[in-house]
């Protein structure tokens, strides 16, 4: 017991630091580490997607086929939505609204009302394979979806009508992001290409030069000027982010 107490005192005096190992072998100290908070489980299986809903709430989806809305500070689950037949792959929300969207391996996208019933208020079927991209227009009137079936679709949120469908060979969509305040959607793909779609005609407005590895996600700065894409690396090379 005495030895244990002494060890406890010793450990309490040690200052731990995060260390970052660079490729050249140098070590950079980045300051004292703070222990990560781990909240109670919200899903009964792995969490596959998470997104901000409000400054205090987040939405998540997982292998348990459900969509959950949580208070991220306390970890409390406020709402749970049930309707998908397979794993939820992506979640997002409409700007300044109470609407939540989820994509799934069941080839569909569903819309949920934060203050509505536990069932979906709108369904968007139409893809032939798992839906892997999901983005809502800035005015919250349209939805863009992408899939491993090589297609990108545009939908009317209120009616659920498919307003357009475009296919590009080998365009296995991994992520979609709507450019703030613009009619453009950025998309990453397993073909290592980042494409910018004009949502009005659902045509590719620009394609950046192909990257070295499969691009797994993308995001756009609030001013719409910068695009960030990421990859998970391959063949022993680590992941990377490109602006």
TrEMBL record:
<keyword id="KW-0853">WD repeat</keyword>
<feature type="repeat" description="WD">
    <location>
        <begin position="124"/>
        <end position="165"/>
    </location>
</feature>
<dbReference type="InterPro" id="IPR015943">
    <property type="entry name" value="WD40/YVTN_repeat-like_dom_sf"/>
</dbReference>
<feature type="repeat" description="WD">
    <location>
        <begin position="81"/>
        <end position="114"/>
    </location>
</feature>
<feature type="repeat" description="WD">
    <location>
        <begin position="173"/>
        <end position="207"/>
    </location>
</feature>
<dbReference type="InterPro" id="IPR020472">
    <property type="entry name" value="WD40_PAC1"/>
</dbReference>
<dbReference type="InterPro" id="IPR019775">
    <property type="entry name" value="WD40_repeat_CS"/>
</dbReference>
<protein>
    <submittedName>
        <fullName>WDR31 protein</fullName>
    </submittedName>
</protein>
<dbReference type="InterPro" id="IPR040066">
    <property type="entry name" value="WDR31"/>
</dbReference>
<keyword id="KW-0677">Repeat</keyword>
<dbReference type="InterPro" id="IPR036322">
    <property type="entry name" value="WD40_repeat_dom_sf"/>
</dbReference>
<dbReference type="Pfam" id="PF00400">
    <property type="entry name" value="WD40"/>
</dbReference>
<dbReference type="InterPro" id="IPR001680">
    <property type="entry name" value="WD40_rpt"/>
</dbReference>
């Amino acid at each position: 017991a005495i030895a244990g107490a002494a060890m406890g005192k010793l450990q309490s005096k040690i200052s731990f630091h995060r260390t970052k190992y660079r490729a050249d072998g140098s070590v950079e100290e980045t300051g004292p580490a703070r222990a990560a908070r781990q909240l109670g489980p919200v899903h009964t299986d792995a969490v596959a997607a998470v997104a901000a809903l409000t400054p205090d709430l987040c939405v998540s989806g997982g292998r348990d086929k459900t969509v959950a809305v949580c208070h991220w500070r306390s970890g409390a689950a406020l709402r749970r939505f049930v309707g998908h037949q397979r794993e939820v792959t992506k979640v997002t929300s409409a700007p300044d609204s109470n609407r939540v969207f989820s994509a799934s391996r069941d080839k569909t996208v569903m819309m949920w009302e934060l203050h509505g019933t536990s069932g979906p208020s709108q369904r968007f079927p139409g893809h032939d394979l798992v839906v892997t991209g999901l983005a809502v227009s800035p005015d919250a009137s349209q939805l863009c979806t992408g899939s491993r079936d090589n297609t990108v679709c545009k939908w009317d949120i209120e009616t659920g009508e498919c307003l357009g469908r475009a296919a590009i060979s080998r365009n296995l969509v991994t992520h979609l992001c709507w450019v703030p305040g613009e009619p453009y959607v950025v998309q990453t793909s397993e073909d290592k290409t980042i494409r910018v779609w004009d949502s009005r005609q659902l045509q590719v407005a620009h394609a950046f030069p192909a990257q070295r590895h499969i691009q797994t996600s993308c995001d756009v700065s609030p001013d719409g000027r910068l695009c960030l894409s990421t990859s998970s690396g391959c063949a022993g090379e680590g992941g990377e982010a490109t602006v």
